[in-house]
């Protein structure tokens, strides 16, 4: 038997299998997250830089606006003076304006309204640096309630922006202190009455801590003072309701008149039918 022929080729060996090469754009999860967080942090830092620029422009705009406001406040003064002179010719202008204003009227009791009938002029003066505050002056005729001709209240803002205020001391005439009457009335009245009857408007001049006191000052300065005529001319709701009731009464009377006329027509038709029936019976009797 012939010996087996050996192959002249070298023996084959298995090559180690290598991991597949990553596809373009594909990274591990941890690397992807790390890169995303880094991009997010960089975006936040850039946003903060842009926001600083915006804030800087806002501050610059505030300074420019303040200069414009100061300029036009001075230009408005002659017109405010002229308006005050014209308002003085209209009796009860300011009490009517306050009563017609929804927020101020809620603070007025009956005696407050009586006292405010002597109010002849109101003036609002903003300080040279508008941001620092303003003053409101109330001018009164001789009245039975207090000796003062002018009652003033000033509002100030300190550097930290906290408000403070000071006002004229009211020199009440004997037995006429409306702020004391208000507290006595509230102590004696029922809870319902306390809810209906507010504290005296004049307690506002002595209240330097309540936030509502500052709010009322802002209402007078920013809402009423620029154009008080719009509130003076607000129609009286009672008059409107009265006119509406009169119109309703007229409509009801017209409706009753229409019903009466229809009733009269129906009665007339019934009378005619009765007459015709009687005539028919008489004719039958004659034939018999």
Description:
By secondary structure, this protein is of the alpha+beta class. It is built from nine helices and four strands. The chain has helices at residues 29-87, 93-100, 102-105, 110-116, 178-188, 191-196, 211-224, 229-232, 237-287; strands at residues 119-126, 133-140, 150-157, 163-167. Strand 3 (150-157) and strand 4 (163-167) form a beta hairpin. The longest helix has 59 residues, at 29-87. The chain starts with 28 loop residues before the first helix and ends with a helix. Residues 1-9 and 186-195 have low confidence and may be disordered.
Instruction: Spell the H/E element sequence.
Output: HHHHEEEEHHHHH
Average pLDDT: 78
The rough form would be described as elongated
Main sheet: strands, sense, barrel: 4 strands, antiparallel
Helix content: 55-70%
Present the secondary structure layout.
Blueprint: H1 29-87, H2 93-100, H3 102-105, H4 110-116, E1 119-126, E2 133-140, E3 150-157, E4 163-167, H5 178-188, H6 191-196, H7 211-224, H8 229-232, H9 237-287
Antiparallel strand pairs: 1-2, 2-3, 3-4
Question: Main attributes?
Answer:
single chain, 288 residues, alpha+beta, four-stranded antiparallel sheet, 9 helices, disordered N terminus
In short:
The protein has 288 residues and is α+β, with helices and mostly antiparallel strands. It is built from nine helices and four strands; from the N terminus they run H-H-H-H-E-E-E-E-H-H-H-H-H.
């Amino acid at each position: 038997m012939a010996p087996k022929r050996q192959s002249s080729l070298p023996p084959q060996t298995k090559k180690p299998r290598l991991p597949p090469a990553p596809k373009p754009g594909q990274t591990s999860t941890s690397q992807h997250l790390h890169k995303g967080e880094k991009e997010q942090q960089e975006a936040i830092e850039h946003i903060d830089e842009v926001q600083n620029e915006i804030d800087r422009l806002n501050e610059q705009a505030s300074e420019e606006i303040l200069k414009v406001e100061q300029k036009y406040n001075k230009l408005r003064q002659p017109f405010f003076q002229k308006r005050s002179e014209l308002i003085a010719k209209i009796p009860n202008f300011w009490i009517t304006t306050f009563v017609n204003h929804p927020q101020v009227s809620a603070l007025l009791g009956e005696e407050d309204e009586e006292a405010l009938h002597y109010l002849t002029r109101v003036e609002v003066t903003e300080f040279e640096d508008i941001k620092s505050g303003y003053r409101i002056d109330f001018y009164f005729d001789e009245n039975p309630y207090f000796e003062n001709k002018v009652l003033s209240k000033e509002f100030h803002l300190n550097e930290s922006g906290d408000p403070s205020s000071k006002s004229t001391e009211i020199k009440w005439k004997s037995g006429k202190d409306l702020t004391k009457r208000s507290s006595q009335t509230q102590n004696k009245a029922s809870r319902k009455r306390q809810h209906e009857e507010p504290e005296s408007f004049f307690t506002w001049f002595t209240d330097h801590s309540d936030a509502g006191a500052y709010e009322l000052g802002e209402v007078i300065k920013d809402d009423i003072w620029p154009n008080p005529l719009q509130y003076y001319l607000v129609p009286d709701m009672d008059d409107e309701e009265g006119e509406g009731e009169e119109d309703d009464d007229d409509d009801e009377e017209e409706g009753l008149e229409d019903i009466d006329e229809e009733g009269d027509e129906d009665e007339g038709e019934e009378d005619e039918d009765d007459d015709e029936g009687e005539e028919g019976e008489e004719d039958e009797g004659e034939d018999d």
